[in-house]
Structure prediction request, 741 residues.
Amino acid sequence: MNERRVEAQPPDSESTSYQLTGPETTAAGIPAVVSSMRHTIGLAGPKKALTLLRTLNQKGGVDCMSCAWPDPEKRSVAEFCENGAKAVADEGTLRRAQPENYTVEELSRQSDYWLNQQGRLTRPLILRAGSSRYEPIDWDAALDFIAQKLKSTQPDRNLFYTSGRTSNEAAFLYQLMARRHGTNNLPDCANLCHESSGVGLNSTLGVSKGTVTLYDFYQAQVIVIVGQNPGTNHPRMLSALQRAKKNGAKIVSINPLPEAGLSRFKNPQDYMHPLQFFRPATQMADLHLPVAINGDVALFQWICRRLLEENKQEDAFIEAYTTGFAVFRHAVKNATLEGTGLTEKQVTPLVEWLSQTRRIVFCWAMGLTQHVNAVDNIKAIVNTCLLRGAIGHPGAGVCPVRGHSNVQGDRTMGITTYPKQAFLDRLGQHFKFHPPQKPGLDVVKSIHAMLEGKIENLICLGGNFLSACPDTERTAQALKNAKLTVQISTKLNRSHLVTGEEAVILPCLGRTEEDGNQFVTVEDSMSIVHRSQGKQKPAGPELRSEIAIVCDLASRLLGADWSLYKRNYDQIRSEIEAVVPGFSDFNRRVRHPSGFALPILPRQGIFPTQDGKAHFSPLMTPDLRLPEGHFYMMTIRSHDQFNTTIYGNDDRYRGIHNKRRVVLVNPEDASILRLRTGDQVDLFCEHRRADNFTVVTYPIPPGCMATYFPETNSLVPLEKTAHGSNTPAYKSVVIRLQPRQ
Ligand code: SF4
Prediction:
């Protein structure tokens, strides 16, 4: 076991010079342009910054490696948002990390921001047993070492983790390698984010993906955005919402927090048109419902009850396409708004707007998917959608908005711990082997297995396993129990420091970098498959693509000659075409400048469930009562971060500057607790603690609090996961505060 005394959590001391300026009411605009330029020119220099941004999200260019918002058919010259600019700047940085110059203990005492600022990793490194310092190793030795470790144990004692940045081609080969090796242990970041969406949608509509396209947004008459902060996490969505508003849509935000992006939006594209330069910002949400944390099931149950009382159900649609209506109807008969923190007066406008149209789009993100009852949250949305017949025609449907550029594509490629039998059969038939049938370990099960000493080796294709996971100290212990942890990465992060007994870092090409004139493909939140091709000179001569690394490892692990796949990615796509439905004629179709759409049957009103019907679900409203002095805490992102990558210490839209260890508290709760803005507190969840947080009184419902992750992932219990999807409940952690002495 690894005895190194490394810090699993970022240091709890921060600079005391911070500023609180209160929540912003306008998103983007000049500040976003300035921030984009500051990040790109600051890290990559003016010349490289220009080429990085010029190709971003352009046809034949680079697909942004941040969120999975789709690209419009007509691209603007600057087809990116501030956070897309930060992402390519981060990858295009001219800085080069040299972790071998420090001990891992020293590095672990640095902040996540500092670690990320060290720059690109450019050569393979190994951390040997008993040593605290990484040392260079050549590729062949590193890959031989890893393959030997993997082969030295049973396949089910090995884990193959994937982050949502991985391309379709790399993901397909990675799952093939793991399955030919003999395991379905393919945990991925979807386990931590939209797994609940997949489970909820699959059991009700028969598909695990959204059913809308970008054009449905433009044709919708009501767009309901639940538990999502697009201004920071999917910023180009604001342009689509602005266009929808122009077409007459009503926009409703259901979120404990008032977010700038859903308040007013000054589209930076306006600055490219003299007539629009001074155009005022667009008022976005017509209604903001500050629902209490996890009050969504109760809220949508009540909305459905109201719609039924007004006889606003779509009888013909319900009759023809659904099942379970009667039981559902009975279940909502006595629904109330108790636990939502909302009044009938507040919610009634939404009921009215929903009752007047079938062109309704429901969007959501982590605010719905990271609760113990998360799958029911999704079902509550689907109930409302079916009641209004808002699916299977233009301007209507459901849209889980993915926060990682290819997390949906990876799942389509077979990155899952519970693959469908049909997929395994096609894989086995095509590659002439017997795939493992036993379901694998998802992320939470992987951590438990590592804690129980049942896992020897963990391979991570991208990501930051430690900081993305809950219960940080236990996850750290789990990693330390492993014999070997391997990170295939572009930048330094805490998972390189809290490792197994031995660890290897394999530096890979970024998505913006040339890869021998080859392109990869990704799939966005609306199931559009399109290509991405890097144009930048690689950050170092030793870098290899994700695909090359998987091929080189597979040749050692399986004795397979995958060199053809390395030389020509069309070969990989031909294999995908043979195994994955919807990818016929893949190589020709993906060369279309806009790519192609995968078939999503509910778009045509076809529901591929067992009985061919869309399912209403009778739901229990969760009991949200808390013991005295306890609060629900949700973890959130600042505007200067992408998942666990910290680009800076500001959260401009929430008016928090140069500080991350803050806890947003309702003003009345603060006065009851005799706390004021600026006071220092420690946070507790059962025996877990997170120290030294600054109180910020903020417009959040009573009983609710918010903090940034990964700083408070240490408070999220490993056992507290969503029924049915096993996604950690990062959005409703029961905490108490204690003033610091
Ligand atoms: S909206 Fe998402 S995909 Fe588009 S540029 Fe911004 S971060 Fe990248």
User: Anything to note?
Assistant: Residues 57, 64, 66-67, 69, 80-81, 83-84, 234-236 surround iron/sulfur cluster (CB under 6 Å). The chain has a mean pLDDT of 97. The two ends are 37 Å apart (CA to CA).
